[in-house]
């Protein structure tokens, strides 16, 4: 009964586990290789320090990468330490964040994040999470303001050396169109994120995540996807039906 209830919950979330995991993983490996050839797995501006990465992720919400990168550079130039950001004048901080949009709410969220880190870890530093078990590190990150599942897994992947698969809106949109997720998939359901991560071999997760971000912003657009020039069109359920 418990197994049936879990399966029903997974299906309701839009995640139907593949019947043959090894076959699904081979498909994801081929996908990762094709996208890497097409886009080259570029640097998206992610940071090696876990707190730096957490802040950077907050700056990427609801904006494009070029603006997030510009804003992050301006923030670190004006305030070289996170202590300075935490004590900065609110209007000045919001002005620095203006290029990324939503600057007032973003400034408040950034302050809350930093204060939570200082309170929980005793300093503006998340390096104590290095070497921590993945489940514990992810849980700690998700307790921080602004660190939902995708953000926490970005910190795990880029700064803590954990082969996590962050599922952002680009990855989610692509996986529905590609036919991996059902049309009824719900982005915020953890089972969807966990299922996709399980499907992608650990060695491919970094490159696939990066190249799906690029693919989603250049080709598999939210509206008017450019299917005729898609490098994986022949393998895509949606692309095969587009003229």
Furnish the topology, listing elements before pairings.
Blueprint (H helix, E strand, L loop, with lengths): L1 H12 L7 H19 L10 H11 L4 H14 L3 H5 L3 H8 L5 H19 L12 H9 L6 H11 L9 H10 L11 H10 L5 H14 L25
Helix pairs in contact: 2-12, 3-4, 3-7, 3-9, 6-7, 8-9, 10-12
Structure description:
It is built from twelve helices and no strands. The protein has 243 residues and is mainly alpha-helical. It folds into two domains: 2-42 and 165-241, Helix-hairpin-Helix base-excision DNA repair enzymes (C-terminal) (Endonuclease Iii, domain 2); 50-159, Endonuclease III, domain 1 (Orthogonal Bundle), CATH 1.10.340. Helix 3 packs across helix 9, helix 6 crosses helix 7 (103-121) and helix 10 (169-178) packs across helix 12. The radius of gyration is 19 Å and the shape is globular. The model is unreliable at 1-12 (pLDDT under 50).
Task: Output the keywords.
disordered N terminus; Endonuclease III, domain 1; 0% strand; globular; 243 residues; mainly alpha; Endonuclease Iii, domain 2
């Amino acid at each position: 009964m418990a197994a049936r209830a879990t399966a029903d919950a997974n299906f309701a979330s839009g995640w139907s586990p593949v019947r043959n995991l090894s076959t699904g993983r081979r498909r994801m490996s081929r996908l990762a290789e094709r996208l890497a050839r097409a886009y080259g797995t570029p640097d998206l501006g992610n940071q090696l320090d876990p707190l730096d990465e957490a802040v950077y992720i907050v700056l990427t919400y609801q904006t494009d990468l070029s603006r997030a990168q510009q804003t992050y550079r301006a923030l670190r130039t004006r305030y070289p330490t996170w202590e300075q950001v935490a004590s900065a004048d609110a209007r000045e901080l919001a002005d620095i964040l203006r290029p990324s949009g939503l600057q007032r709410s973003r400034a408040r969220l950034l302050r809350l994040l930093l204060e939570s880190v200082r309170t929980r870890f005793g300093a503006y530093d998340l390096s104590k999470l290095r070497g921590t078990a993945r489940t514990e590190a992810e849980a700690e990150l998700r307790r921080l303001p602004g660190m939902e599942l995708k953000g926490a897994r970005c910190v795990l992947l880029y700064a803590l050396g954990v082969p996590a698969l962050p599922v952002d809106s680009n990855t989610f949109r692509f996986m529905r169109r590609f036919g991996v997720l059902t049309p009824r998939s719900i982005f915020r359901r953890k089972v969807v994120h966990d299922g996709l991560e399980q499907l992608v071999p650990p060695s491919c997760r970094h490159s696939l995540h990066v190249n799906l971000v690029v693919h989603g912003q250049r080709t598999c657009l939210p509206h008017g996807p450019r299917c005729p020039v898609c490098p994986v069109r022949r393998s895509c359920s949606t692309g095969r039906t587009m003229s």
